[in-house]
Specification:
With 321 residues, this protein is an alpha/beta fold. The chain contains 10 helices and 8 strands. The longest helix has 22 residues. It is globular and about 55 Å long. The chain starts with 12 loop residues before the first helix and ends with a helix.
C-alpha cells in the first residue's frame, strides 16, 4: 500500500517499485558492511522481489524491463549467497537459449527428494524463496524454474504449452547428481504453473507426484495487461492469433494421462478461475485429490500458509522412501 499509493498511473509503476527495491538494497549493503549477514541476505532477497514486482505485467519500456529482470536475478543471487550455502544456479541449454533454475537443498539431509517449482504467466523463480522454505524445512530439495516465457529465460525463449520439454531437460541435467534423490521427483505449480506442472507429470514418467494451487483449466487472457503480457511472451502481435494460441495451454486431454498422485488446491473466492474447473482436474485424473478452501482467493493467497503447508506435507508423504 505504501508503494502503490504513490503511483499516479500505470506508467509510474516500474520506477516506484524499483525505488522501493533500491531502499532495501541500500539496507542490505550497509548491513553487509557491518557483518550483519542475515539482515543483509534477507534485504537483498526482498529487494529482488520488489524488482520483480516492478516489471510484473509491465511492458511500457522493454529496455527497462530487461535491465530490471537481470537486476532481480543478480540481487537474489547476492542475497542467497549470504543465506543458503546450498543455493546453486543451474543453466540448461534448450533450443537456441537456455532455461535457468535455482537449486536449494535442505540441511542435514544427504540425498533429499527434489520438488520442481513452476511459476505462472509472469511469475519467476525470484518470487519463490519463501515457498522453497516450506519444502526445505520438511527435508525436500527445490528447483525453482524459469521455463520458456518466464523471467530471464523468457528474454530469449517464447512461452510454449509443452512446458514438459523444459522440465525433462532440467531432470536430465540433474540426473547424475548424488546430493538429490532423482528417483523421487515432485513438481508443483501455481496459477498458469498448474498447467505446466500437470503437463510435465503427464508426459514425464520420472516425476513421482504433482500438486498445484489455483489457475485455469484452459488459459484465456483476462484483461488487457495479461493479454499484452501473453502476446509479448509468445512473440505474437495479433490479438486473435494470440487468443487462439492461448487455448493450447490447457489440461484437456492431459489430466486423463496422469498416473501419479495429483493434488489440486483451489480457493472458492477465486474470481478469475472457477473452483468447479479445478475440481474437474482432480476428477479426470486417476489418482486426483481436490481440496477447496472456502475463504481462499486467487491462487489461495488469502490462505497462503495453510494451503502451502498442506501441499508440502502431502508432497513429503508422496516422496517418502
Amino acid at each position: 500500500m505504501r508503494v502503490t499509493a504513490a503511483i499516479p498511473d500505470w506508467a509510474g509503476w516500474h520506477d516506484a517499485w524499483v525505488a522501493a527495491g533500491d531502499a532495501y538494497r541500500v539496507l542490505a549493503e550497509d548491513s553487509e558492511k557491518r557483518g550483519r549477514t542475515r539482515t543483509a541476505g534477507e534485504s537483498y532477497v526482498r529487494a529482488a522481489l520488489y524488482y520483480h514486482y516492478a516489471k510484473f505485467l509491465w511492458l511500457e519500456d522493454l529496455n527497462k524491463y530487461r535491465v530490471t529482470t537481470q537486476r532481480s536475478v543478480d540481487t537474489l543471487r547476492k542475497g542467497m549467497a549470504l543465506l543458503d550455502p546450498t543455493f546453486e544456479r543451474v543453466e540448461v541449454p534448450l533450443d537456441l537459449g537456455r532455461i535457468v533454475a535455482n537449486l536449494r537443498r535442505p540441511s542435514g539431509t544427504a540425498r533429499a527428494p527434489l520438488v520442481i517449482l513452476a511459476p505462472g504467466l509472469d511469475s519467476t523463480k525470484e518470487e519463490l524463496p519463501r515457498w522453497e522454505e516450506t519444502f526445505l524445512r520438511r527435508g525436500m530439495a527445490t528447483a525453482s524454474l524459469d521455463g520458456p516465457g518466464q523471467g530471464e529465460t523468457g528474454l530469449a525463449l517464447a512461452i510454449r504449452p509443452d512446458y514438459e520439454v523444459a522440465v525433462s531437460a532440467l531432470i536430465d541435467a540433474l540426473a547424475s547428481r548424488t546430493d538429490v534423490d532423482m528417483r523421487r521427483i515432485g513438481i508443483s505449480g501455481v496459477g498458469m504453473g498448474n498447467i505446466y506442472a500437470a503437463r510435465s507429470a503427464a508426459f514425464e514418467p520420472r516425476i513421482t507426484a504433482v500438486a498445484t494451487i489455483g489457475g485455469p483449466y484452459t488459459y484465456a487472457p483476462a484483461g488487457q495487461r495479461s493479454l499484452r503480457k501473453f502476446m509479448h511472451s509468445a512473440r505474437i502481435d495479433d490479438e486473435t492469433e494470440a487468443r487462439a494460441y492461448a487455448e493450447r495451454f490447457t489440461l484437456h486431454g492431459v489430466t486423463e494421462r496422469l498416473e501419479q498422485p495429483y493434488l489440486v488446491l483451489h480457493g472458492k473466492l477465486d474470481h478469475s478461475f472457477k473452483w468447479q474447473d479445478a475440481e474437474r482436474k482432480a476428477k479426470e485424473a486417476k489418482r486426483g485429490e481436490f481440496v477447496l478452501f472456502e475463504h481462499g482467493g486467487g491462487v489461495c493467497y488469502t490462505v497462503d500458509h495453510e494451503a502451502k503447508s498442506l501441499l508440502a506435507d502431502w508432497m513429503k508423504e508422496r516422496l517418502a522412501v
